[in-house]
Design goal:
The chain has about 325 residues and is α/β, with parallel strands linked by helices. The protein has two domains: about 15-45; about 45-315, Metallo-beta-lactamase, Chain A. Helix content is about 30%, strand content about 20%. It is built from nine helices and 16 strands. It has helices at about 15-40, 90-100, 115-120, 120-125, 145-160, 215-225, 245-255, 275-280, 290; strands at about 60, 70-75, 80, 105-110, 135, 165, 170-175, 180-185, 200-205, 205-210, 235, 255-260, 285, 295-300, 305, 310-315. The strands form two sheets. Strands 6-5-4-3-2-1-14-15-16 form a nine-stranded mixed β-sheet, with no helix packed on it. A seven-stranded mixed β-sheet has the order 7-8-9-10-11-12-13. Strand 3, helix 2 (about 90-100) and strand 4 (about 105-110) form a beta-alpha-beta unit. Helix 2 crosses helix 4 and helix 4 packs parallel to helix 5 (about 145-160).
């Protein structure tokens, strides 16, 4: 299956010389920009490492997908992907994997079937081997009939890949002692955002929470479930929308830092001011619209953050080499 990869007056000689020189400059600049984009994933240069992950370390990349989500987790032994951006972003995710030398994925999670989360997933499934694919189980009245969702189903079928329904409490070993545990969804909903897969990543004493577009109702049910939500890093729900990140939820998490995937000057106004204000009480906020791709690195006790357009920050413990 093919991917959706959706006046007659004579001019003086000096005029044409000027135009040719201008065109040449634009072509050179464009070529340089294209090379930089293909190499670094952005036109602004890259301050984050693409070296092989060090033995005994964990990397979590919040990929710059504009107003969309994609998160890459890797250790020296394994790699996992949570979401894959919009419909036209599958190749961008594949370039990121290629730069990191990742030729297969041990785990892929599609948090919920909206195009800004699973739009590029069919492209990824068609081009790279995947060991396990997890998505939320949908009630019959919420099953989408969109091309985006159907393309993912067809791509999985073409690869003889079964889709595992997300079950709270199920854990996946990701190498070097890293464990990803599903916490949600819990409860019944009439909204695809609310049914987002929520997962917790533990690595030594360092931890992360990934929430997709989980809503305040989802958060309330997670709190009632007794799930362990206390983590170091929160990947903020729904691009920083005020439909997520309730005060009670943030208090239970008590993160030392947070990340937000959102597009520059997006039409939704994400992240919403009240959410940013709440998050700022808990530590630094790393935003893809301001910083590009964000990289968290840990050895199990220390934790650092770096980005394409920012400086490296030690969040916990000591600086890692």
């Amino acid at each position: 299956m093919a991917s959706r990869r959706k006046s007659s007056r004579k001019k003086s000689s000096s005029y044409w010389t000027s135009r040719i020189l201008t065109l040449a400059v634009l072509l050179v600049a464009g070529a340089v920009g294209l090379v930089d984009y293909l190499w670094n994933g952005s036109t602004g240069g890259d301050k984050i490492s693409y070296a092989t992950v060090a033995s005994g370390q964990l990397e979590v990349r919040i990929l710059d997908m504009g107003q969309a989500d994609s998160i890459l987790i890797r250790t020296q032994e394994k790699a996992a992907l949570i979401d894959a951006g919009e419909n036209d972003m599958g190749q961008q995710v594949l370039r990121e994997l290629d730069q990191l030398g990742i030729t297969s994925l041990d785990l892929v999670i599609g948090t919920h079937p909206h195009s800004d989360h699973i739009g590029g997933l069919d492209t990824v499934l068609e081009e790279i081997p995947v060991e396990k694919l997890v998505m939320p189980q949908l009630p019959d009245d919420l099953v989408p009939t969109t091309a985006t969702y159907l393309d993912v189903l067809w791509a999985a079928q073409a690869q003889n890949l079964e889709i595992d329904a997300a079950q709270p409490g199920v854990s996946y070993e990701l190498g070097s002692g890293a464990v990803l545990t599903l916490l949600g969804p819990v409860g019944k909903y009439d909204d695809l955002n609310a049914i987002s897969v929520v997962s917790r990543l533990d690595f030594g004493t360092c931890s992360f929470l990934f929430t997709g577009d989980a809503t305040t109702l989802s958060e309330e049910n997670l709190l009632k479930s007794g799930a362990n939500l206390d983590v170091d890093i929160l990947d903020v729900g729904h691009h920083g929308s005020n439909t997520s990140s309730s005060p009670a939820f943030l208090a239970a998490i008590s993160p030392i830092a947070s990340s937000i995937s959102c597009g520059a000057n997006n039409s939704y106004g994400h992240p919403h001011a009240e959410v940013v204000e709440r998050l700022s009480e808990y530590g630094p906020i790393f935003r893809t619209d301001l910083l590009g791709t964000i990289l968290f690195t840990s050895d199990g006790s220390s934790l650092m953050a770096s980005s394409q357009r920012g400086e490296t920050v030690v969040l916990k413990g000591e600086a890692l080499s």
